[in-house]
Design brief:
alpha/beta; Urease, subunit C, domain 1; Diaminopimelate Epimerase, Chain A, domain 1; eight-stranded parallel β-sheet; 19 helices; about 35% helix; globular
Length: about 550
């Protein structure tokens, strides 16, 4: 072959190779925090090709990846970081709540009643009123709501509205009738039904396992309704920079909804679905038959419950509640059942995540995890404790020593800090939301929101973890301030920590070549902001799998 055709062929090959290294998208003009260390961000740029990170470095080094078809996003001095991951949501419930009655900010019983009445007027007779997320701690000493507050304004509509923590709810008389709940209905184990002390009639408040007494009478959402709720939740999450989540206590119907939207090309968030622990056999069979899933939708494992919440006084403690003499809280399931389910799920190779809030619930769960691991032998389990809120000092090092993941929600700190000391006294709060101590003993923190219990906004979560300033403004220097952590540590818990907690650290959670291109651009650099203004930052761009899914 003559030299000229050979040379031309070589030049063409080089040109094609160069084109193959061109970026589809370059983010420049900001500072980049890769999440690979606890250090701060550096000026630079991120190059993305297809759905993965191509390169990251200073702007000069990134120039070689820019071609005629490369799109450039300007960070304008903002912070470029891995996509936020919410390690604990009830994600589709969040979508339903976005379209339901809002009672969260109802600051008086009168406002609570007014909102219920106004919402009921929009409905047809027989339609249920759900959601709510009410918070009676805003009512300054007023007791829990009762059915007779709202019966007169909801005669034709069953009402079952939950407290914001999801561990207690108010049913009106129409809902109790629809569910067949009367004074003769026994209280199920692991639950509580508040009753009139004279007549025994239910007052309308049901807690934890008793929620099912009414819940089973509520018509299940149709697939279209569930998919619409998911679509609302996705749009909301995009605007806040959330690119992945662990959906806790999901149903198989929720899993099917995610799969439908993925097939339709509508997923803009990666999800690990954690299904009910007591259905471990069904979960294992589903994975054997259909596989665990893919980068968009996968079965993460099992989710169980040890106890309830401090707000509902159903979190389980070694010592009684300070404001309820002789009452310790409750276990949602007998310890023997939890031990059997966790052991069986572990034998089936499933990851296990269990809700535990009170110190006794946490201690029992850690002991179960210990015994199961010893019995079944060493492997990479990554047991999770969801919430891990109130811990005995001697239990804190066990997380790091045994590789148990504390999956925690920093917003709860600045919310609960308004009132929880009244529940459990000054001594037990010293190890409440022990972020600093857990990190210092080697635990890998995974942060989330517990949405809808708390807002899904990760920036607010970072603010909460760094400042611990309670919502009532009464702790300007932080509530239990020795447990504050740094901006970098909070961001790592919202990114790499959740990637680790879902076995995805080799795919996302950091900005690194070859990782999935899930990236968020904030409008300012969190590392240079005063701590008390961190919550003022906003998301400028959200990028998932290399596609811009949100631009402010």
């Amino acid at each position: 072959m003559p030299r000229r055709p050979i040379l031309e062929a070589a030049l063409l090959a080089c040109a094609l190779a160069a084109c193959g290294r061109r970026a589809d998208l370059v983010i420049s003009g900001g500072v980049v925090w890769t999440g690979l260390s606890s250090g701060g961000p550096q000026p630079g740029a991120v190059a993305i090709r297809g759905r993965t990170i191509l390169a990251v470095g200073d702007s000069a080094a990134m120039a070689k990846y820019v071609g005629a078809r490369t799109r450039t996003l300007r960070a304008d001095g903002g912070l470029v970081l891995p996509g936020f991951v919410d390690g604990h949501t009830h994600f589709i419930d969040g979508g339903f709540q976005l379209g339901s009655i809002d009672l969260r900010s109802a600051a008086t019983p009168q406002e609570f009643i007014r909102r219920v009445a106004a919402y009921a007027r929009k409905l047809q007779p027989g339609q249920w009123i759900r959601g709510g997320d009410w918070d009676h701690t805003l009512w300054k000493g007023t007791p829990l709501p009762r059915k007779d507050w709202i019966d007169s304004v909801t005669p034709d509509n069953p009402v079952f509205v939950n407290r914001l923590d999801g561990h207690e709810a108010l049913a009106n008389s129409a809902a109790l009738r629809a569910a067949g709940v009367t004074k003769d209905t026994p209280t199920p184990p692991g639950g509580e039904v508040l009753r009139d002390p004279r007549t025994g009639e239910p007052l309308g408040i049901l807690k934890d396992q008793a929620l099912d007494l009414v819940g089973r009478a509520i018509p299940a959402p149709t697939p279209d309704q569930r998919d619409s709720a998911l679509a609302r939740a996705l749009a909301h999450a995009e605007s806040l920079g959330v690119t992945a989540t662990a959906h806790m206590s999901a149903s198989f119907a929720d899993l099917a909804s995610y799969q439908r939207l993925e097939r339709a090309g509508r997923m803009t968030l990666r999800v690990a679905v954690y299904l009910p622990l007591e259905r471990w056999r069904d979960i294992a069979d589903t994975i054997r038959r259909d596989g665990q899933g893919d980068d968009w939708v996968r079965i993460g494992g099992c989710k169980g419950y040890m106890d309830g919440s401090a707000g509902a006084r159903t979190a389980y403690f070694f010592q009684p509640y300070a404001d309820s003499a002789g009452y310790y809280g409750l276990l949602q399931h007998p310890e023997a059942d939890m031990r059997a389910w966790i052991g069986a799920a572990d034998s089936a190779g499933l990851q296990i995540a269990v809700h535990a809030i009170g110190d006794r619930a946490n201690a029992i769960l850690l002991a179960i995890y210990d015994s199961v691991a010893r019995a079944h032998g060493a492997r990479d389990r990554r047991f999770r404790v969801e919430h891990a809120q109130h811990l005995r000092p001697e239990d804190i090092p066990r997380f790091g020593e045994r590789g148990v993941i504390p999956s925690m929600q920093p917003y709860h700190t600045i919310d609960d800090g308004r009132w929880v000391e009244q529940r459990i006294g000054p001594e037990r709060i010293k190890t409440t939301y022990a972020f600093r101590r857990l990190l210092d003993t080697g635990a890998k923190l995974a942060f989330g929101s517990d949405w809808t219990v708390a807002p899904i906004d990760p920036i607010v979560g970072v603010y909460a973890a760094v400042t611990r300033r309670t919502l009532d403004g009464k702790h300007p220097d932080g509530w239990v301030p020795e447990e504050k952590i740094t901006v970098a540590e909070a961001l790592r818990a919202y990114t790499w920590g959740n990637a680790w907690a879902t076995f995805n650290e080799s795919r996302w959670g950091t900005i690194a070549p070859g990782h999935l291109a899930d990236v968020v651009v904030l409008d300012r650099n969190l590392f240079l902001m005063p701590a008390d203004s961190l919550d003022q930052a906003r998301v400028r761009y959200t990028i998932v799998g290399g596609k811009v899914v949100f631009a402010r």
